[in-house]
Design a protein that fits this description.
Helix 4 (83-92) packs parallel to helix 5 (107-120), helix 5 (107-120) runs antiparallel to helix 10 and helix 8 (183-194) crosses helix 10. The protein is globular and about 60 Å long. The protein starts with 9 loop residues before the first strand and ends in a 7-residue tail after the last helix. It has helices at residues 19-28, 44-54, 63-67, 83-92, 107-120, 134-145, 178-181, 183-194, 282-294, 305-322, and strands at 10-15, 34-40, 58-59, 73-76, 96-100, 124-127, 153-159, 197-206, 212-221, 224-231, 240-244, 247-251, 260-265, 270-274. The chain contains ten helices and 14 strands. The mean pLDDT is 97. The strands form two sheets. Strands 8-9-10-7-11-12-13-14 form an eight-stranded mixed β-sheet, covered by helices on one side. The longest helix has 18 residues, at 305-322.
């Protein structure tokens, strides 16, 4: 039975009780005046286990039942091949949507999601967590107060060969591969510091399923260049470099869950920044999303729709260059 709610309380339903949804639930527990009310999953057993682990009061037997539940927002955490369909259906049901990255397989699908959000007058935000972490925000402030000059080069990437053969990134039919599975973080970092995308050059290899198993992406932006890599058959260190005329900043691994950065100035100065995070880190972007709802906003100033479209464009160009196409495209 659903409990009486306060006026400021934001109620969530979760669509897809997998790994990301577990981290979301952990983070949500640390967000004031926000609560997880319902969950739906293709597997009733997984949905039941998720509900038991995170004390979710309602397990919906059908997806339309979730969309019809007394929730304000849906967190979409299924595989990327279903993001567009489920986001559009949730928006049509009058729910705000926080969608796990990548928000869609391609620019066309994301454009359809954003059109649905405008039609329904609902908030849509891609769940891109790095800019909300305390370390990332402190680094921004420090570089504004004691600059190293304009960032002209970004180097970032991550490749994880330790994932098992049944891990979703291995399969084309659900939108797998390193570019879509890991690349959104790298695309965000390059666009965030270097601005609008001008050119993409990608090289790499595909696995037997037709998804990219390792790639290197060179991008040119309005303010500089980036070198990015993603992969699922090699192992690499997930740090990131921001390079400028008067110094550089190194965000230590894993940079997308950042706790430590090193800044070295050309004049010999050296600085370490340390900022731990709490509750797994999903709490920061979720708290931001809740405040947007309470404020009546329909777009995040931190992750605006234009940024999500730019990330989708960069990733689509990269995988197109490698010949990666998903069913239905």
């Amino acid at each position: 039975m659903e409990t009486k709610r306060s006026k400021s309380e934001i109620r969530f339903g979760v669509l897809g009780p997998g790994r990301a949804a577990a981290r979301f639930a952990k983070g949500l527990a640390a967000v004031p005046d926000a609560v997880l009310i319902a969950v739906w999953g293709r597997s009733p057993d997984r949905a039941r286990a998720y509900a038991e682990q995170f004390a979710v009061p309602r397990i919906t037997s059908a997806i339309d039942e979730l969309f019809g539940a007394d929730v304000d927002a849906i967190y979409v955490a299924t595989h990327p091949d279903t993001h567009a369909e489920f986001c559009i259906r949730a928006l049509a049901a009058g729910k705000h949507v926080l969608c796990e990255k990548p928000s869609a397989l391609n620019v066309r699908q994301l454009s359809e999601i954003l059109a649905a959000a405008r039609r329904q007058d609902r908030l849509f935000m891609e769940a891109m967590k790095p800019p909300f972490f305390p370390l990332y925000q402190r680094l921004r402030r420090h570089l504004a107060d004691d600059p190293i000059g304009p960032i002209g080069f970004v180097r970032a990437g991550h490749s994880d060969s330790s994932i098992g053969p049944d891990y979703p990134l291995h399969f084309a039919e659900i939108g797998g591969g390193g570019i879509l599975g890991i690349g959104p973080y790298e695309a965000f970092l390059a666009l965030d510091w270097l601005g609008a995308l001008q050119r993409v050059h990608a090289i790499g290899r595909l696995n037997s399923a037709g998804v990219d198993s390792f790639d290197v992406i060179h991008t040119e932006h309005e303010r500089g260049l980036a070198q990015l890599h993603t992969g699922i058959d090699l192992f690499s260190h997930g740090d990131a470099l921001l390079s400028a005329p008067r110094g550089f900043a190194l965000i230590h691994a894993n940079w997308w869950n950042p706790t430590r950065a090193t800044i070295r100035y050309a004049d010999g100065r050296f600085l370490e920044l340390h900022e731990p995070y709490t509750a797994g880190g999903f709490n920061y972007e979720t708290a931001h999303f809740c405040e947007l709802i309470r404020s009546g906003l329909r777009e995040s100033p931190e992750i605006p729709h234009s940024l999500s479209l730019a990330m989708a464009n960069l990733l689509e160009q990269a995988r197109t260059a490698l010949g990666v196409r998903f069913p239905g495209e």
